[in-house]
Amino acid sequence: KTKADIAILEMDEGHADSITKEVAPRIVTLLNVLEDQLDRFVDPALVRDSLHSVASRATQKVLLNADDQNLLLLAKKTTPAQIDWFGIQSSVMGDSDLGVAPTYVAALSRPTNLVAEVFNLVAKKCSVRISEREVIFDLPSRGLHYALDSVAALATARELLGDRFDLELAEQVLTDLPPVFARGEVVEVEGQQIEFVLVQNPTSFQLNLDNLNLPIESLMIAIGRDVHDPSWLWTVDFSKLKHVDVVSGYNCGEIALRLSYDNVSIGVADDDLFESFSAFLALPTPANSMKTVIFSADSMRRLRRHLGFIRPDEVEA
Asked: What pTM was computed for the model?
């Protein structure tokens, strides 16, 4: 049994509903209801019901993302005094909806009394307004989804620690966070700097594509056996890409076909992952950027193991 004063549990709606029946949480922080959750839960309403059960068990506070209509609906069934809101300013969000699931009802007004809000994001530099103060820090990787995670963490820490919450310390901790392996991870292979970008479903694929610094001079995409139903590749918009140097993995043919329908030119298509990566390494070094590999989880695991990157603490910023 672990001895600790505080436990922070990160769970999906299925596990959270079960576990919070046994362990009542002080604080519940809900990020979103995403479209990629619907392959398991079918309907956003079922996900909302499960998350509402979790939220109703909070003994202190419920923290909700103000930019997800699903959570605004959930809040209507929750005691108002128990709720605090966090989010991302509309000027920063732009046209992105971060892949949230539809509600199929008329939109509700966004709350205005946010305790923490992202008000600027340039590359990895994120600015948040919290407790009438401003804090600026570097995200571990590019993307609005990382900014949302960070503002949620700040709001949760503030609620949990109260007067003990140290904003300067929080700023330093967030800045010092390394990327999670394969998620914006930069590795050195044979003297070359290469960025690894993991994609696992339509939402994460689209978000990561949208956050790339385009145009990319040297790009490889590898889709492995974990993509059991390659039809979801057709829900991703690849039109911003002009060229992919190498495509590979078990589903090499599927991703090559999908790219061709968005008029993306392809240099080499080969389902042999390791040979393809060697060919990618042999390409000229980009003049203004680094080589980038986008891969699904199966290809990620195989390639990192092949290259000897087998420990999470080997990640470099």
From this structure: 0.78
